[in-house]
Write a structure and sequence with these properties.
The chain is an all-alpha fold. It has eight helices and no strands. The longest helix has 17 residues.
Length: 152
């Protein structure tokens, strides 16, 4: 076999990203359902006519195997993608920097430092500017300088 033909053969054997995902999904389902090797191979053979997940060649085979897994009770649990909170903020909402500043002032000046009491306080105030001014006043009345880095 020539070097070029050998290289083409290797490329044909390489799994595409989609096939890798299919294999991963099938193995996750197998492990979630706690199938032993014999039951797993029987399921593959009956559903798609294959002996191993790596033998899958088409989407229809993958879907047949996953339908069999679902019939046994498997359900996908979708992971929620990591979302940058700043990316989902609306224009009328505060910026991340303002939120950081508000929480810092709250921790500095309040008696109750938890998130619930901050939310209750914020609900009584309207608008982000009002919250910052109210917290600055609260910090000053408690004897702290809200503009210093150490809060003293």
């Amino acid at each position: 076999m020539s070097a070029l033909a050998d290289n083409n053969h290797k490329e044909a054997d390489m799994a595409t990203p989609e096939k890798k995902r299919w294999c991963r999904d099938i193995h996750v389902a197998k492990n979630t359902l706690r199938l032993d090797d014999m039951a797993y191979r029987s399921l593959l053979s009956g559903a798609a006519g294959i002996e191993s997940a790596s033998e899958i060649k088409s989407r229809s085979q993958y879907e047949a195997v996953m339908a069999a897994m679902k019939a046994l009770g498997f359900r996908f649990r979708r992971k929620h993608p990591e979302v940058d909170p700043q990316a989902i903020r609306q224009k009328h909402m505060i910026t991340a920097r303002q939120e950081y500043y508000i929480k810092g002032l709250w921790r500095l000046a309040s008696r109750e430092k938890d998130e619930k009491s901050l939310r209750s306080f914020v609900q009584r105030i309207t608008g982000a500017g009002d919250v910052i001014l109210a917290l600055r006043k609260l910090a000053a009345s408690a004897g702290f300088d809200p503009d210093s880095k150490d809060g003293a």
